[in-house]
Amino acid sequence: MEQDLTPGERLMIFRSKRGLTQRDVAGEAGCSAASICRRETGKTGMAESELLDLCSAAQRIVERRQAQNTPADVLGGE
């Protein structure tokens, strides 16, 4: 069950399902990929609030990529 997962495991699943690398999330969150790796593997603890911040960073990347792939006519262009 997902509620039995650690915050790091939940971050890894969230990130992986969106096709993002640790480096992607780290760049958006302003930390190192090694830091993300340590959190996902449980070597560094992570509070729920930090998990939310990192998932938000990941979601911003997804939304930006989706916007870049939206046809111009959908955005009101030609």
Secondary-structure topology with pairs:
Elements: H1 7-17, H2 22-29, H3 33-41, H4 48-68
Helix pairs in contact: 1-3, 1-4, 2-3, 2-4
CATH architecture: Orthogonal Bundle
| Alpha plus pi helix count | 4
Radius of gyration: 15 Å
As a percent range, the share of helical residues equals 55-70%
State the major sheet: none
What is the assigned CATH homologous superfamily?
lambda repressor-like DNA-binding domains
The H-and-E topology, N to C, reads as HHHH
Distance between the termini: 47 Å
Descriptive key words:
mainly alpha
Write structural notes for this entry:
With 78 residues, this protein is mainly alpha-helical. It has one domain (2-67): Orthogonal Bundle (434 Repressor (Amino-terminal Domain)), CATH 1.10.260. 63% of the residues lie in helices and 0% in strands. It contains four helices and no strands. It has helices at residues 7-17, 22-29, 33-41, 48-68. The relative contact order is 0.16.
Give a brief outline of the structure.
By secondary structure, the protein is mostly helical. 63% of the residues lie in helices and 0% in strands.
